[in-house]
Design goal:
By secondary structure, this protein is of the alpha+beta class. The protein is built from 13 helices and six strands. 36% of the residues are buried.
Amino acid sequence: MFLATAREATAFFYALCDLFCASIIGILLYTTLTDVDRTNKRIHLIAVLITVIVYCISDSLWIFSYCNFIIPCTRVPRYITSIIKYIIISGCSYTICRFFFSIWESVVGSRKRRSKTIFLPIVILVLAVITTPFTHLIFEINNFGFMLKGPLYQLFTTVLFGYLIVFSIFSVIFYFQTENDFAKEQYSFVLIYTIPALFGAYIHYHHWTIPSFAIGFTFATLIIYIFQMRDMVSLDALTGINNRRQGERFFMEQISRINEEPHQLMECLFLFMMDLNKFKAINDNYGHAEGDKALIATSEVLKEACSHIRRRCILSRFGGDEFVIGVVFTPDEAHLLNEKINELIIKKNEELNTPYKISISVGYTYYKKEFRDLRTFLSKADKIMYEMKEAAHKREAEEKSLEKKE
């Protein structure tokens, strides 16, 4: 009989479950790789998918040796399969943390290199796992093939899964600090992801013959994938900021809140409408690739300008070379934001050193109850923006005229 003992049956169905999980993740990996989108979050998602698949394979080898099925349950095979499994678990923990960082970066709008804070401790633990046959710090395999937990085993699991817990705690804190719906979705996702992963790890820690770790990872990764699909609907593919749909959603929610208020609010809902000056000329003279670079550079400037107010504003690309910022502000703060945008544009031009200069026209206004709806609000800001654009063109024409006279 193929499955002669209960241990062999356990190993077979355990590995079958791992194979099923790996197949699901493999399908997600294939569709992700064939997608042209290569944002920071997308790249880290691919890393998560790959490490989870490799973990499922290593988990199957581990159970085969543990149950003496195909791979003998002796010291050397048990050491090899266990070391491989724990190294891959470490890799999963790292790639998931990097993915969480990319989620936070999408909200904050910056890319600070924080990976060393999680990479170095994991490297140390991996080295401890590799040397454990000699030191027995993490675990030990006795002469009967049974695993005995070492003095650092608890530390090893605490560090790996402690990262997920820490990310969850900070995400809850950030969730309640922000008023931005998009940011709330990002932070809540981190918490939702960690629940099945940690629950599966807890069960597997106490019951080694249940493949709950792989199931938990797979279920959590499915959540990641669904989340990424939602991103494709809500984010602009080129710049990585909110698209028009998300921007309009923010304004409609805020307008509805203001219209229902019985009294005048101290702070106002400001709408900043911006577009690039002479964007068509950049495309015509230097190519559409340079035009895309100009759009990306502009979005980076706007992200930086809004970095201090990210929890109460939304930045969206409304289409073409048009960008919109929505924020609840005082008039003085709105004026300072406008100045900051112009200062950062000058600074960005110095950094880029391109044959063309990026410049934008900004028109901003605040919402009044007599507007009644978003369309009127947008039209008002759009009109002011084009007045600013016309004024800029006149100044440029006058400067050229003076140069010719000289």
